[in-house]
Amino acid sequence: MAEPSARPLSQVDRAYVALKQKICDGTWAGGAVRLEREAADEIGVSRTPVREALIRLEEERLVKVRPRRGFMVLPISASDMADIYEILTALESHAAAKLAARKDRDAALARLEAAVDAMDTALSDDDLESWATADLEFHRALVEEAGNRRLADIVATVSDQVNRARIATFRLRPKPLRSNSDHRAVLKAIRSGDVDAACSRHKGHREKARELLVSLLAESGAI
């Protein structure tokens, strides 16, 4: 029997994905104000699904809906990002431990190895954008291969907001040499099946990333 095709996105879902993309990739910076009609025209839907999508985005603290005046994209705050990173660190570290405990992890290891290799190549070429793409793939692979779909879904939600902050501070960061070493250490622990080391090394990596990102946000003010 053929697999059922994926259900197409509703108009509200389409609006939600499109609006969130504009916020998270920096197209609409913090503090930007848009009318519902303008947003609807930009993404090619009517105002009703935009209005419903904005309710979801407000719950995620990405926008502030202004009745009869559209909405404002909320700036990224250092304190909010610290809270998000605390959640992300705990969940990803748990995923690293679960992956290290798996017996059938060859495909996952290959995926992680490819991401780390791509990060090394990107740094050698001074290609920070490619490095960021490979870094994102490493963290996505870590949670997707851990074997818990709900965990991966939750991490994906908070990761969107972290990536927004990373894009905003991208050019303010030092070259991420230490980050590559951290990824190699996490990969080594997972490959050896060392559950405790995989968890602690990934936790240490994320805590260093949190400290850097929060300090950059605090120094630059709301973005």
What's the helix and strand layout?
Layout: H1 11-24, E1 33-34, H2 36-43, H3 47-59, E2 63-66, E3 70-73, H4 78-101, H5 106-124, H6 128-144, H7 149-169, H8 177-192, H9 195-220
Antiparallel strand pairs: 1-3, 2-3
Helix pairs in contact: 1-3, 2-3, 4-7, 4-8, 4-9, 5-6, 5-8, 8-9
What is the molecular shape? globular
CATH fold label of the largest domain: Four Helix Bundle (Hemerythrin (Met), subunit A)
Give the N-terminus to C-terminus distance in angstroms: 51 Å
Order of helices and strands: HEHHEEHHHHHH
| Helix content estimate | over 70%
Structural class by secondary-structure content: mainly alpha
Strand count, sense and closure of the main sheet? 3 strands, antiparallel
**What is the CATH domain class of the largest domain?**
Mainly Alpha
The spatial strand order of the largest sheet comes to 1-3-2
- Please report the number of helical segments: 9
In CATH, the homologous superfamily of the largest domain goes by the name GntR ligand-binding domain-like
Integer-rounded radius of gyration: 19 Å
Q: Which residues form runs of ≥5 with pLDDT under 50?
A: 1-5
Strand content: under 5%
**Subunit organisation of the chains:** single chain
Mean pLDDT: 91
The number of E-state strands comes to: 3
Short description:
This protein has 223 residues and is mainly α. The chain has nine helices and three strands, in the order H-E-H-H-E-E-H-H-H-H-H-H.
Description:
The chain is mainly alpha-helical. The protein folds into two domains: 63 residues, Arc Repressor Mutant, subunit A, CATH 1.10.10; 143 residues, Four Helix Bundle (Hemerythrin (Met), subunit A) (Up-down Bundle), CATH 1.20.120.530. Helix content is 71%, strand content 4%. It has a three-stranded antiparallel beta sheet with strand order 1-3-2. β2 and β3 form a beta hairpin.
